[in-house]
Amino acid sequence: MSKKTNYLSEVETGGEVYITKVLGHGAFRKRITEMGFVKGKKVKVVKNAPLKDPVEYEILGYNVSLRHSEAQLIEVVSAAHYIKHSDATFNGVIDEEKLKRSAIEKGKTINVVLVGNPNSGKTTLFNLASGSHERVGNYSGVTVDVKEAKVKKQDYTFRLVDLPGTYSINEYSPEELYVRKQIIENKPDIIINVVDASNLERNLFLTTQLIDMNIKVIIALNMFDELEKKQVKFDYTALGEMLGIPIIPTIAPKGKGINELFTKLIDVYEDRDPIVRHIHINYGEIIEKYIREIQTEIWESPKIRDQFSSRFVAIKLLETDKTMLHDLQQFENYNDIKRVAAQAVEKLEKSMNEKSETILTDAKYGFIDGALKETYREGKSDKRKAKREYDDILTHRFFGFPIFIFFMWAMFQATFTLGSFPMEWIDAGVELFSSWVQASMPEGALRNLLVNGIIGGIGGIIVFLPNILILFFFISLMEDTGYMARASFIMDKLMHKIGLHGKSFIPLVMGFGCNVPAIMATRTLENKKDRILTMLIIPFMSCSARLPVYVLIISAIFPKNQGFMLFGIYMTGIFFAIITALILKKVAFAKKDVPFVMELPPYRRPTLKNTSMHMWFKGREYLNKMGSVILIASVLIWALGYFPTNIKYTKNYQFEITNLEQNTQLRSVEKSKLIDDLELDMISEKQEKSYIGQLGHAIEPVIAPLGFDWKMGVSILTGLAAKEVVVSSMGVLYHSQGNTANDTETLKNRIKEQKYSSGTLKGRAVFSPLVSISFMLFVLIYFPCVAVIAAIHKEANWGWAVFTMVYTTILAWLLSFAVYQIGSLFV
Ligand code: GDP
Ligand code: MG
């Protein structure tokens, strides 16, 4: 930068200056320009004392304060400077307009550096653009010298700098360090990334590092002649749109594309190029988690953010980059950052079993692979060999889809068949435990609470733990091997049809496990609208918490068509997800698609240890839920069913039972049956008159048209906390036919035998096939659960969270209503 340049930080109190340029990286520039600090604007220094932070300024008629470090990034020209250097004779009057124009004139110097791999043609391009005659050739690694040239084009002055060639901007060679220093310290306005078109994959690696740095970049797609020779089809426009970087094809020795390059430089400099946007390379769930951890610590020190993109710093630290660590020493929370970063690196390496640097490099190549896969078609004599030979099959135009469907089918199949064995063991264990508690405790409220409330509630759910862990295991396996990314690739076209992107697919699949992490996973989507749309349809992905309800009812009512019924339920969910997406796309999110890259990370051989660990991370949440929400809900439901204890019964059961017991005329078998019936009537009357029974009856008018009895109504209400609770509530509520443990097997039988004991429906089965379907659909669609709503609130806002609550519940009601009412006409 020229020595004559003044910065806003150097202007003394009372000084008036005009802004010529705002330096710094993307986020900083954006914030500062939003505050009004743009080229040509006048700023008055209200208060600036040395060592005083922040400094107060007046701009656009109001006062703002900036930190010293921020003001250092704003280039200004003083009124005095203008007067001294202007040709006009000073007559005591300062012409504001002229000053402003002078500021704009001065702002018309664009600092550009050329960055690229060795032999990508930087020097050739530099020479042609500047008209100088530097020797071209491969000098890489010999010297670190810089050539500079000034070029005037269309009212603008370009300061071009040719930097030494590098394959990356790490810290391994003096060249790399040098390039990095040039970019970070001198803050050029725009970088021309010279990319050798005949070796895209390797060249674009450097580009990914530039993207991380959040700086303005233009790609000169050099050696374009080579590309044409090879007859490849390369949609570089689409690639540019995905990367948010304009791409100009060039043939440096012929000077082809150089004028276009200059024009583009001006457009980008003046912020009027529609393609330019800052994208985040998605490094995958695990890496992103650690990036965020480090970023959070970096944010503690706002000064860092003036100089670097916090994401870039975090990524560099995760790569254990020593230079970055060194650069951070000047900031007060250096030690904290260092500690947090070291921990993150350790955890990352442990979880992926690989050096962190390799992990990030692989992820970057995954990004490039994905980007090229969508835009690049090999030519006849092309040597860009498919390193990832599985991709030929797994993402094949025709075979990819059936293979994917097969994997999904296998996953669900395994979840249920493998899961059924441990399910039985747990089932037996719970039953044993329950009878042991029953036998070893004196009768009373406490025993009742333990057996019917806690063991009944939790026990009814814990049996599904194996299924859930197996499902999580497969999802983790697909992620760990890299197949999940291919799956989204295949799904991309289909997803576009409903206004989504292939990338939305992973969160949607994760939704089958648990909606909460799925909603958090939408962060990988770049576009806010895509994110929200995906979030809104995730609740239709039937999560594992709903599975117990289906398994219970299907095994009780539809023992012959279990697989088919389950498949049907899941499909119904997907169907409504599609419908919802289509409607929302029309109504709320009519927009143009912003294309973005779908990363194709390398295939990895999964290890049992890693995959189990990832399964465990996902499953842990489920266990937490059992220990908290479900436990509390179970106790609450039990209490609501147990109290009040002073019920006025319609008849004196106790008296009648005693009478029967003393009756000598009846045979003992008949007698005990009559007694059992009486006891049963008494328990159900008690339950019906309990608080929960009253609650159930209160909502009966709303749910009766759906075919539900009040117990189903209560179960649905309690399911607002978490959908597993629906089953544990049923466990507690339909307990009335026996006093043994409350495991699924017996609950299943109870549900099957449940009959209306009074009213017009007396004697009819409560769970008729039609009611069962209506009920399962309701559980599938209605209010996801408190945790999901909280997650949507956090990731989007309250509005969408409320929308989800209302929309899903109304939809569920309408669907169940239609199924039950229309079905009743035929059955
Ligand atoms: P640098 O290392 O990036 O500075 O690359 P150079 O400018 O030294 O170029 C390396 C070699 O590539 C030279 O022999 C150039 O003539 C050649 N070259 C540069 N640009 C092109 C191009 O667009 N097409 C072709 N065919 N050759 C090029
Ligand atoms: Mg060179």
- Could you give the order of strands across the largest sheet? 1-6-2-3-4-5
Strand count: 14
Q: List the ions, cofactors and other small molecules found in this model.
A: guanosine-5'-diphosphate, magnesium ion
The outline comes out as: elongated
Low-confidence runs of at least 5 consecutive residues = 135-143, 382-387, 736-743
Beta-strand content = 5-15%
Describe the fold and architecture.
The protein is an alpha/beta fold and 827 residues long. A six-stranded antiparallel beta sheet has the order 1-6-2-3-4-5. A six-stranded mixed beta sheet has the order 8-9-7-10-11-13, sandwiched between helices. Strand 3 and strand 4 (55-59) form a beta hairpin. Helix 7 (200-213) crosses helix 16, helix 9 packs across helix 16 and helix 28 (653-662) runs antiparallel to helix 29. The structure holds guanosine-5'-diphosphate and magnesium ion.
Structure in a nutshell:
With 827 residues, the chain is an alpha/beta fold. 59% of the residues lie in helices and 9% in strands. The protein is built from 37 helices and 14 strands.
